[in-house]
Structure formats: C-alpha cells, structure tokens
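Input sequence (370 aa), recorded before submission:
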Amino acid sequence: MSATSAMDVSGRLGRLRAALFDAGPERELDGLLVSHLTNIRYLTGFTGSAGVLLVTADAATMLTDGRYTIQAADQLASAGVEADLVIENAEPIKRLGSLVANAGILHLGAEAQHVTWATLTAWQDGFDGVDLVPTSDAVEALRIVKDAGELAIMRRAASIADDALAEVRSMLRDRPTERRFGLELDTAMRRLGADDVSFETIVASGPNAARPHHRPSDRTIVRGDLVILDFGALVDGYHSDMSRTFCIGEPTETQARMLQVVGDAQAAGAALVGPGIAAREIDRACRDLIAEAGWAEAFTHGTGHGVGLDIHEAPRVGRTSDATLVPGHVVTVEPGVYLEEHGGVRIEDTLVVSIDGAEVLTRSPKHTTV
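Predicted structure, token format:
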C-alpha cells in the first residue's frame, strides 16, 4: 500500500472523469493517457518508476512491467484500477494500442507537458485510427487543492525539517564547510523520518549567499558570513520547503538592514495569504517593501510557488500570476535580497490557505544570529 491511502485516492479518478468526460455526446475526449508518474501517483497511489494510466469514462487500466506485479496489484486496487503487465521482450506500444482499441477510443488525450516527441510519434504510429489530442493540466488542476490526508503528510514533512534544523543549527558556529553542513542537515532529516530531501539542499555562505541557487561547496563558513539555508523533507511523496538566513556573529550595518527588510517583506507577504487573495498581491507586498529600501533590482526571483507532490507546482506567486488563492492551496512566500559585496538574505515559509486565513507549516524561528 502506498502512503496515499484508499480513502485519499478513491474519489480522484471520479473527479478527473467529471472534468473530462461529463460533457455529454459532444465531449471532445473519450480517453486520457496519463504518463506523468507524479500524476499517476496522485490518481492511483502507484509509486513505481514506470507505467502509463489509461482512463476512460467507466474504467481505468495501468500498463506497467513485470517488476511491479505484486506492487501494482496492491497499490492500484484501492483506486479501482486494473493492472496490465508487459512481460519481458513484449512490445509495450503494441500492448497499449490494444488496450486503446479494445476500449473503443477514437479521441485520446495525452499530457502535452509531459510527453516527449519520440513517445508521441510512437503512439501515433501504434494507435490505428486514434486521434491524439493534447491536454494541459488535467490532473494538475485537481492536485492544486490539497485534501486533509495530503495536508497531514505535508505537516509531517515540515515538522521533520524544523526539527532537523533545530538539531544541527549550532554547528554553524564550528566553521563547517557548506557541503559538510548540508550533509549534516540532510542526514538529520532522514534520521527523523524523511524518505529523502525535497531537493538539493542550498547552503550559501558569505559571497556565495548572493547567488540565489548556489550549490554547497567546500567553502568554510566563517564569522561575519550571512548563510542562506533552503531545504525541505520529502515524506510519502510530498515536499516541504523552507529558507532561513543566519549571520555568524554580529551582522554589519548593511547586513542587519538586509535581514530586517527581507524579514519585514516576508512577514507582509505571509500576512496576506488567505482565501480570495490574488497571488500577485502577495508578490507586490513583498516587492514594494524591498523597493522602498532601494533594493528592487536585488530581488531577482519570484515570491513563491505551490508545493505538493512536486516542489514547484501551481499556484505561482509572482507579479504576473493570475491565480486567486482558495482553501487547500499550499504556497511559499520567499522574498530575498542579494548583494555581491555583502551576501544575501532569503526567508521562506510554506503556508496552507484555510477558510479564514492561513496556517504556517514551517515553524522554525527566524532569529538571525548564530
């Protein structure tokens, strides 16, 4: 059984069918091929590394291979999905074509954002008389609002990251390298229950902190450095995401101002998160405060993004975003300022939109001096 329980996944295919097929006889599609493994996991609970899910108005079949004979039977049953296995040396495209033909599909949707040209060409050659129709965000539109089970997992992931940081934070005073500290943080998350890290942990110190997505190096963290930590824990497929910035020793006047401005901007943006709020307004609240400080050009990235089964997913929080927040959305708020001669500061929380506001998942203190 995957960590996505039967209760969690049981209604998801029904919601997908309602969106795709409940348009009466004039509907454009009579089937959908779901090839993105994250979307397959969301719909079925299947956690294997290979497979394609064929969804019609009244059935769903998962084509995978013999490595997953037992796993597929176990995980797919909870979603009401039939497993169809391709044995060694068989032709998967031919088998998939037979499934499509047997279902009487004439207009078959394919996930345009996740299908390579080579795969599309193979499907076109292998599906006789079938019109392949590009679809966009059919499953992602369902994933954007998290249910209670998903939120419980994400709270756990965020809690593990919080506890891991509390466990290793004092090591910053011991002059570790960026790489060593990142390893200690990653190990702590795994020891505390994470399946993996959400992404490659960012440890950026001194001049490296002026690079928003710096990769940990062998640079030694020393007194006077600003140190950006951007990290998260992966639990049952769901991510957490958090950034904190620390100063090793007392900050300079400019560093102290950077920490204050970014902290105020992040607090202003986070305070806006709630139902009915346009995502671009959150971006504007953060960006305006940083611009007032004279650092508009030093805030070089978007203010936030959705989090879930992917570390970056909808809704996007940026100046051009057209999203409006609703309960169940999970978003980050992460403004930053990056000055080559002084370092960088980024502070990030992950928040769940609730009926009357927001719940902050990432609870690590924002004290800045180590």
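Checked by second reader. The longest helix spans residues 148-168.
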